[in-house]
Design goal:
Layout lengths: L1 E6 L4 E8 L5 E7 L2 H11 L3 E5 L4 H10 L3 E5 L16 H13 L5 E2 L4 H25 L1
Parallel strand pairs: 1-4, 4-5
Antiparallel strand pairs: 1-2, 2-3, 5-6
Helix pairs in contact: 1-2
GO molecular function: DNA binding; transposase activity
Protein name: Transposase IS110-like N-terminal domain-containing protein
GO biological process, one term: DNA transposition
């Protein structure tokens, strides 16, 4: 099984193309843009796309799902990702760790809702912020 593990960053994404049958892996970098991520997934043809959950993970999962790829979003609050449990923390090491844990099915994952659900939640959160701001103006 080919696994494409992504360590997403604000400007660049480090990827690890991991072959679970023989353990071979290859690292690389792409810009963190929808086009670059789409082209990466198309060119590497993975069976599964694995990434850490973060603020930009939603659109990456949307792209992978649209291409028919299995996706996993890792829960970063799990003990495996805590600083005190990790001796060396680099983007490459994180991507390789994602791929290896996914291969062994030991990756603690979270559910990534569909785009329309995420948009609705963001709208509700924005409305709550506006109401709180309005109330503080009235009371202040």
């Amino acid at each position: 099984m080919n696994i494409l593990a992504l360590d997403l960053g604000k400007f660049k994404t480090v990827f690890c193309d991991y072959n679970s049958s023989n353990g071979e892996h290859e690292f690389g970098k792409v810009k963190t843009t929808p086009k670059e991520v789409h082209d990466l997934i198309v060119s590497r043809e993975p069976d599964r796309v694995v990434l850490e959950v973060c603020s930009i993970a939603g659109w990456v999962v949307d792209i992978a799902r649209a291409l028919g790829k299995e996706t996993e979003a890792a829960r970063t609050m799990h003990d495996a990702w805590r600083w005190k449990n990790v001796k060396k923390k680099t983007d490459r090491q994180d991507a390789l760790k994602l791929a290896k844990l996914s291969t062994m099915r030991q990756l603690a994952t979270v559910h990534m809702p569909k785009k329309d659900v995420r948009e609705k939640r963001a709208l509700i959160k924005y409305r709550q912020r506006l109401v709180k701001y309005r109330t503080s103006i009235k009371n202040g």
